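Predict structure. Input: ABC-2 type transporter transmembrane domain-containing protein, 308 residues.
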Amino acid sequence: QNQELVERLSKPDKDANELSFPNKYSATFFGQFLACLWKQNLSYWRNPQYTAVRFFYTGIISLMFGTICWKFGSRRESQQDIFNAMGSMYAAVLFMGITNATSVQPVVYVERFVSYRERAAGMYSALPFAFAQVAVEFPYVFVQSLIYSGIFYFMAEFECNVYKFVWYVYFMYFTLLYFTFFGMMTTSITPNHNVAAIIGAPFFMMWNLFSGFMISHMRIPIWWRWYYWANPIAWSLYGLLTSQYGDVDERVKLGDGVHSVMVKELLERQFGFRRELLGVAGIVVVGFCVVFAVTFGLAIKFFNFMRR
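Output follows.
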Protein backbone atom coordinates (compact mmCIF):
# COMPACT_ATOMS: atom_id res chain seq x y z
CA GLN A 1 0.00 0.00 0.00
CA ASN A 2 2.83 2.41 0.79
CA GLN A 3 4.49 1.69 -2.54
CA GLU A 4 1.23 2.33 -4.35
CA LEU A 5 0.78 5.58 -2.38
CA VAL A 6 4.28 6.76 -3.29
CA GLU A 7 3.69 5.87 -6.92
CA ARG A 8 0.40 7.76 -6.99
CA LEU A 9 1.68 10.86 -5.19
CA SER A 10 4.85 11.05 -7.29
CA LYS A 11 2.77 11.75 -10.41
CA PRO A 12 1.39 15.31 -10.57
CA ASP A 13 -2.18 15.93 -11.49
CA LYS A 14 -2.86 16.88 -15.07
CA ASP A 15 -4.35 20.22 -14.00
CA ALA A 16 -1.49 21.09 -11.60
CA ASN A 17 0.91 23.94 -12.45
CA GLU A 18 4.67 23.56 -12.13
CA LEU A 19 6.35 25.37 -9.27
CA SER A 20 8.00 28.61 -10.36
CA PHE A 21 9.68 31.44 -8.45
CA PRO A 22 10.11 34.94 -9.88
CA ASN A 23 13.44 35.43 -8.07
CA LYS A 24 16.26 33.19 -6.94
CA TYR A 25 16.20 34.70 -3.43
CA SER A 26 13.23 35.21 -1.17
CA ALA A 27 14.26 38.77 -0.24
CA THR A 28 14.99 41.75 -2.44
CA PHE A 29 18.51 43.07 -2.99
CA PHE A 30 17.96 45.76 -0.36
CA GLY A 31 16.47 43.23 2.04
CA GLN A 32 19.49 40.98 1.63
CA PHE A 33 21.76 43.98 2.20
CA LEU A 34 20.00 44.90 5.45
CA ALA A 35 20.15 41.32 6.70
CA CYS A 36 23.86 41.07 5.90
CA LEU A 37 24.50 44.46 7.47
CA TRP A 38 22.74 43.35 10.67
CA LYS A 39 24.83 40.17 10.65
CA GLN A 40 28.08 42.07 10.05
CA ASN A 41 27.24 44.56 12.78
CA LEU A 42 26.88 41.73 15.30
CA SER A 43 30.04 40.09 13.99
CA TYR A 44 32.07 43.29 14.45
CA TRP A 45 30.53 44.02 17.86
CA ARG A 46 31.55 40.53 19.02
CA ASN A 47 35.08 40.93 17.71
CA PRO A 48 36.83 43.26 20.19
CA GLN A 49 40.21 41.94 19.07
CA TYR A 50 39.63 43.94 15.89
CA THR A 51 37.32 46.82 16.83
CA ALA A 52 38.26 47.78 20.39
CA VAL A 53 41.96 47.22 19.84
CA ARG A 54 41.79 49.42 16.75
CA PHE A 55 40.36 52.33 18.79
CA PHE A 56 42.90 51.81 21.56
CA TYR A 57 45.73 51.68 19.05
CA THR A 58 44.46 54.88 17.39
CA GLY A 59 44.47 56.71 20.71
CA ILE A 60 48.01 55.59 21.50
CA ILE A 61 49.29 56.58 18.05
CA SER A 62 47.53 59.95 18.32
CA LEU A 63 49.22 60.72 21.62
CA MET A 64 52.56 59.54 20.31
CA PHE A 65 52.37 61.67 17.16
CA GLY A 66 51.00 64.59 19.18
CA THR A 67 53.94 64.59 21.56
CA ILE A 68 56.48 64.10 18.77
CA CYS A 69 54.96 66.88 16.63
CA TRP A 70 54.19 69.20 19.55
CA LYS A 71 53.10 72.64 18.25
CA PHE A 72 54.29 71.93 14.70
CA GLY A 73 51.14 73.51 13.27
CA SER A 74 51.63 76.86 14.98
CA ARG A 75 55.22 77.38 13.81
CA ARG A 76 55.38 79.34 10.57
CA GLU A 77 58.65 81.23 10.75
CA SER A 78 60.63 79.27 8.15
CA GLN A 79 60.23 76.94 5.22
CA GLN A 80 61.34 74.03 7.37
CA ASP A 81 58.44 74.63 9.78
CA ILE A 82 55.96 74.06 6.95
CA PHE A 83 57.83 70.93 5.88
CA ASN A 84 57.72 69.65 9.46
CA ALA A 85 53.94 70.13 9.56
CA MET A 86 53.60 68.33 6.26
CA GLY A 87 55.76 65.50 7.57
CA SER A 88 53.48 65.06 10.58
CA MET A 89 50.45 64.74 8.28
CA TYR A 90 52.28 62.39 5.94
CA ALA A 91 53.48 60.10 8.75
CA ALA A 92 49.98 59.79 10.20
CA VAL A 93 48.40 59.02 6.82
CA LEU A 94 50.94 56.34 5.97
CA PHE A 95 51.26 54.80 9.43
CA MET A 96 47.58 54.59 10.32
CA GLY A 97 46.47 53.83 6.77
CA ILE A 98 48.72 50.80 6.35
CA THR A 99 47.70 49.58 9.81
CA ASN A 100 44.02 49.73 8.81
CA ALA A 101 44.67 47.96 5.52
CA THR A 102 46.58 45.07 7.07
CA SER A 103 44.36 44.61 10.14
CA VAL A 104 41.15 44.24 8.09
CA GLN A 105 42.55 41.50 5.84
CA PRO A 106 42.18 38.53 8.23
CA VAL A 107 38.68 39.72 9.19
CA VAL A 108 37.54 39.76 5.56
CA TYR A 109 39.20 36.39 4.98
CA VAL A 110 37.13 34.75 7.73
CA GLU A 111 33.88 36.47 6.73
CA ARG A 112 34.34 35.49 3.09
CA PHE A 113 34.61 31.79 3.88
CA VAL A 114 31.51 31.97 6.08
CA SER A 115 29.67 33.61 3.18
CA TYR A 116 30.54 30.69 0.86
CA ARG A 117 28.41 28.35 2.95
CA GLU A 118 25.55 30.80 3.40
CA ARG A 119 25.51 31.83 -0.26
CA ALA A 120 25.47 28.15 -1.29
CA ALA A 121 22.39 27.70 0.90
CA GLY A 122 20.65 30.50 -1.01
CA MET A 123 20.51 32.90 1.93
CA TYR A 124 21.83 35.90 -0.02
CA SER A 125 23.86 36.81 -3.08
CA ALA A 126 27.44 38.07 -3.27
CA LEU A 127 26.94 41.79 -3.80
CA PRO A 128 24.68 42.46 -0.77
CA PHE A 129 27.21 40.66 1.40
CA ALA A 130 30.12 42.65 -0.05
CA PHE A 131 28.38 46.02 0.26
CA ALA A 132 27.35 45.21 3.83
CA GLN A 133 30.99 44.43 4.62
CA VAL A 134 31.87 47.83 3.18
CA ALA A 135 29.09 49.73 4.97
CA VAL A 136 29.82 48.28 8.41
CA GLU A 137 33.25 49.94 8.32
CA PHE A 138 31.81 53.47 7.99
CA PRO A 139 31.03 54.19 11.67
CA TYR A 140 34.15 52.48 13.00
CA VAL A 141 36.47 54.41 10.70
CA PHE A 142 34.61 57.64 11.48
CA VAL A 143 35.13 57.18 15.23
CA GLN A 144 38.75 56.31 14.54
CA SER A 145 39.15 59.55 12.55
CA LEU A 146 37.55 61.63 15.31
CA ILE A 147 39.83 60.10 17.94
CA TYR A 148 42.96 60.80 15.95
CA SER A 149 41.98 64.26 14.70
CA GLY A 150 40.66 65.41 18.07
CA ILE A 151 43.90 64.49 19.83
CA PHE A 152 46.57 65.23 17.24
CA TYR A 153 45.10 68.40 15.70
CA PHE A 154 45.10 70.31 18.97
CA MET A 155 48.35 68.88 20.32
CA ALA A 156 50.09 69.96 17.12
CA GLU A 157 48.31 73.33 17.49
CA PHE A 158 47.00 73.73 13.98
CA GLU A 159 44.81 76.77 13.50
CA CYS A 160 41.80 76.76 15.82
CA ASN A 161 39.26 77.09 13.03
CA VAL A 162 36.12 74.96 12.72
CA TYR A 163 36.26 75.05 8.92
CA LYS A 164 39.85 73.80 8.81
CA PHE A 165 39.25 71.19 11.51
CA VAL A 166 36.30 69.78 9.56
CA TRP A 167 38.44 69.55 6.44
CA TYR A 168 41.13 67.75 8.45
CA VAL A 169 38.61 65.21 9.79
CA TYR A 170 37.15 64.82 6.29
CA PHE A 171 40.45 63.93 4.64
CA MET A 172 41.56 61.67 7.49
CA TYR A 173 38.21 59.85 7.37
CA PHE A 174 38.28 59.09 3.65
CA THR A 175 42.00 58.35 3.75
CA LEU A 176 41.56 55.68 6.41
CA LEU A 177 38.48 54.48 4.54
CA TYR A 178 40.22 53.92 1.20
CA PHE A 179 43.12 52.20 2.97
CA THR A 180 40.63 49.89 4.68
CA PHE A 181 38.83 49.18 1.40
CA PHE A 182 42.15 48.57 -0.31
CA GLY A 183 42.97 45.92 2.29
CA MET A 184 39.55 44.35 1.74
CA MET A 185 40.06 44.42 -2.03
CA THR A 186 43.46 42.70 -1.89
CA THR A 187 41.95 39.94 0.25
CA SER A 188 39.03 39.45 -2.15
CA ILE A 189 41.31 38.82 -5.15
CA THR A 190 43.71 36.45 -3.36
CA PRO A 191 43.27 33.02 -1.73
CA ASN A 192 44.03 34.21 1.81
CA HIS A 193 45.12 37.20 3.87
CA ASN A 194 48.79 36.17 3.83
CA VAL A 195 48.93 36.46 0.05
CA ALA A 196 46.94 39.71 0.29
CA ALA A 197 49.60 41.20 2.57
CA ILE A 198 52.29 40.27 0.05
CA ILE A 199 50.27 41.82 -2.80
CA GLY A 200 49.62 45.03 -0.87
CA ALA A 201 53.22 45.69 0.21
CA PRO A 202 54.52 46.84 -3.22
CA PHE A 203 51.58 49.22 -3.58
CA PHE A 204 52.33 50.82 -0.22
CA MET A 205 55.94 51.25 -1.26
CA MET A 206 54.97 52.90 -4.55
CA TRP A 207 52.38 55.13 -2.86
CA ASN A 208 55.05 56.18 -0.39
CA LEU A 209 57.56 56.98 -3.12
CA PHE A 210 55.16 58.93 -5.35
CA SER A 211 53.20 60.71 -2.61
CA GLY A 212 54.88 64.05 -3.30
CA PHE A 213 56.51 64.22 0.11
CA MET A 214 59.88 62.64 -0.65
CA ILE A 215 59.95 63.98 -4.22
CA SER A 216 57.75 66.88 -5.28
CA HIS A 217 55.59 65.95 -8.24
CA MET A 218 57.16 68.79 -10.26
CA ARG A 219 60.55 67.06 -9.86
CA ILE A 220 59.27 63.61 -10.79
CA PRO A 221 60.29 62.67 -14.38
CA ILE A 222 57.51 63.32 -16.86
CA TRP A 223 57.13 59.63 -17.75
CA TRP A 224 56.36 58.81 -14.08
CA ARG A 225 54.32 61.90 -13.22
CA TRP A 226 51.06 60.23 -14.18
CA TYR A 227 51.43 57.86 -11.21
CA TYR A 228 51.52 60.82 -8.84
CA TRP A 229 48.00 61.77 -9.91
CA ALA A 230 46.88 58.13 -9.60
CA ASN A 231 48.31 57.93 -6.08
CA PRO A 232 45.66 58.22 -3.32
CA ILE A 233 48.17 59.36 -0.66
CA ALA A 234 49.20 62.26 -2.89
CA TRP A 235 45.62 63.54 -2.95
CA SER A 236 45.29 63.11 0.81
CA LEU A 237 48.40 65.21 1.38
CA TYR A 238 47.15 67.72 -1.17
CA GLY A 239 43.90 68.14 0.74
CA LEU A 240 45.39 68.13 4.24
CA LEU A 241 48.12 70.67 3.50
CA THR A 242 46.02 72.94 1.29
CA SER A 243 43.12 73.07 3.74
CA GLN A 244 45.48 74.17 6.52
CA TYR A 245 47.88 76.51 4.69
CA GLY A 246 46.35 77.27 1.29
CA ASP A 247 44.91 80.62 2.44
CA VAL A 248 47.71 81.73 4.81
CA ASP A 249 49.27 85.07 3.82
CA GLU A 250 51.98 85.04 6.48
CA ARG A 251 55.52 85.21 5.15
CA VAL A 252 58.08 82.52 5.91
CA LYS A 253 61.83 82.53 5.33
CA LEU A 254 63.18 80.27 2.62
CA GLY A 255 66.06 77.88 3.08
CA ASP A 256 68.63 80.56 2.31
CA GLY A 257 67.55 82.49 5.42
CA VAL A 258 67.27 85.75 3.44
CA HIS A 259 64.31 85.68 1.09
CA SER A 260 60.75 85.12 2.21
CA VAL A 261 57.42 84.27 0.57
CA MET A 262 53.85 83.84 1.69
CA VAL A 263 52.92 80.37 2.89
CA LYS A 264 50.38 79.79 0.13
CA GLU A 265 52.98 80.80 -2.48
CA LEU A 266 55.47 78.37 -0.97
CA LEU A 267 52.96 75.54 -1.33
CA GLU A 268 52.36 76.37 -4.97
CA ARG A 269 56.03 76.80 -5.87
CA GLN A 270 57.38 73.83 -3.94
CA PHE A 271 54.56 71.28 -4.27
CA GLY A 272 52.14 72.68 -6.84
CA PHE A 273 49.34 72.83 -4.25
CA ARG A 274 46.64 75.37 -5.08
CA ARG A 275 43.72 76.33 -2.89
CA GLU A 276 41.35 76.26 -5.88
CA LEU A 277 41.74 72.48 -6.21
CA LEU A 278 40.86 71.68 -2.59
CA GLY A 279 37.36 70.60 -3.60
CA VAL A 280 38.78 68.42 -6.38
CA ALA A 281 41.05 66.69 -3.86
CA GLY A 282 38.03 66.08 -1.63
CA ILE A 283 36.15 64.43 -4.51
CA VAL A 284 39.12 62.33 -5.61
CA VAL A 285 39.67 60.71 -2.20
CA VAL A 286 35.99 59.73 -2.19
CA GLY A 287 36.48 58.33 -5.69
CA PHE A 288 39.29 56.07 -4.50
CA CYS A 289 36.98 54.72 -1.78
CA VAL A 290 34.31 53.96 -4.39
CA VAL A 291 36.77 52.27 -6.77
CA PHE A 292 38.25 50.01 -4.09
CA ALA A 293 34.82 49.17 -2.62
CA VAL A 294 33.27 48.32 -6.01
CA THR A 295 36.30 46.23 -6.98
CA PHE A 296 35.96 44.37 -3.69
CA GLY A 297 32.29 43.64 -4.42
CA LEU A 298 32.95 42.42 -7.96
CA ALA A 299 35.82 40.21 -6.78
CA ILE A 300 33.61 38.65 -4.10
CA LYS A 301 31.00 37.94 -6.78
CA PHE A 302 33.22 36.45 -9.48
CA PHE A 303 36.15 34.88 -7.57
CA ASN A 304 35.70 31.71 -5.54
CA PHE A 305 38.65 30.28 -3.63
CA MET A 306 36.75 27.45 -1.96
CA ARG A 307 38.61 24.22 -2.68
CA ARG A 308 36.14 21.55 -1.59
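Residues 48-211+285-302 form one domain.
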